[in-house]
Amino acid sequence: MSKELAKSARKRFGQNFLIDGRVIDAILASINASASDAVVEIGPGHGAITEGLYASQCDLTLIELDRDLVPGLLASFVSKSPERCRLLNEDVLKVDFTELGGPLRIVGNLPYNISTPLLFKLLELGNQIQDIHVMLQKEVVNRIAAAPGESAYGRLGVMIQATAHVEPLIDVPPESFAPPPKVDSGVIRIIPDANKRALIESTDALTQVVRQAFSQRRKTLRNNLKDVVSLDEFEALGINPQDRPERLSVETYVELGNYLGRREGKA
Ligand code: SAM
User: Fold this and answer.
1) Do the bridges between strand 164-172 and strand 185-192 make them parallel or antiparallel, or are there none, so unpaired?
2) Best mutation site among 96, 106, 109, 140 for ligand 1, i.e. most ligand atoms within 8 A of its Cβ?
3) Does residue 162 share a domain with residue 37?
C-alpha cells in the first residue's frame, strides 16, 4: 500500500501520506476527540487520521483540495454519515471558517508550504477555535515553541505565543510517510487564549514592531528599531537597547506594540 501511496502522491499538493500506525494512534490519542466535538480536518488525503476521528462520532468537516481524493473520502466517511460529516473540495486558505460554526477543533497533517499562513488565519478567529493539532516541519514546530534566548526564537514564536499556548507533542521521522519527506516532522498543539489576545491593543503595531526588531537578528534592538523607538522610550519601557531581539519576552513585545500603537493612534 505505501508504494502505491508514494506513486499517487502529488508534489504540488504537498502530499506525504502517514503510514505509521503508531504515529497515527499517538496523534489520535493526543486529540482525544469525542461525539460532542466539532472537528475540522485539513488535507485528509487517503484518510489516515480521518478514520479515527470518524470513529469518535464527532461532527467532522473535511477540507481537501485534491479532487482525485474526493471520491474515496466521500465513500469512506461522508456518504456513510452525511448528518455529521461533510467535505469541502477547496483550498483551505480560501475557506470562510466563520461559516463553520464552533468552537472548532482543527486537525491536519498540513502541506508544509501553507502552514504559516494557515496558522495565522486560524489564530485570527480567536475563540471560534478550541484547539489546533497539526503536523509541521520539526524546524517550524521548534520556532513556534521557542523560548527567549533560544536560537529558534523569532517572529513566528512571538506572534503565535502572543495569542496562544503551544505544546510540541510528537516527533515524527521521514519513514512514517509515503513518500518520505526530506525533513523531520513534529506534531504541535496550539490552544488560542482569549486572555492573552485581550492584552494586545493593536495587532498591526505588534506585527510591525516584531518584524522590525528581528529584521537583523545579530544586531541590537537599538539598531533594528532606531527609526521607531528613542533611547528615552527604551528606558521608560524598561528595555535595554543593547539587547539582541531574541532576549525580549513575548510579553515585552506585546507591551512595546501597545505603546507604539497608542503613540501612533492605532490602538
Ligand atoms: N492527512 C493525510 C495523511 O496524514 O496521510 C494527508 C497529508 S498530506 C501531507 C497533505 C494533504 O493536504 C494532502 O491530501 C493534500 O492534497 C492536501 N492539501 C494540500 N494543499 C491543500 C490546501 N491548500 N487546502 C486543502 N488541502 C490541501
Assistant:
1) antiparallel
2) 109
3) yes
* 8 Å CB contact between 241 and 220: yes
Q: Which of 41, 14, 23 is nearest to 187 (CA)?
A: 23
CA distance 28 to 107: 10
CA distance 144 to 246: 13
Quote the ligand 1 centre to 42 CA distance (angstroms).
Answer: 7
Pocket test for ligand 1, best of 2, 8, 66 (most atoms within 8 A of CB): 66
Parent domain of 174: 2-197
Written as nine digits, the cell of 99 is 461559516
Q: Is the pLDDT of residue 12 over 90?
A: no
Do 171 and 77 belong together in one domain?
yes
Instruction: Tell me the per-residue pLDDT of 85-113, one tens digit each, with 9 for 90 and over.
Output: 999 999 999 999 999 998 999 999 988 88
Looking at the 3D structure of the chain, how many domains does it have? 2
- Domain check: are 121 and 177 in the same one? yes
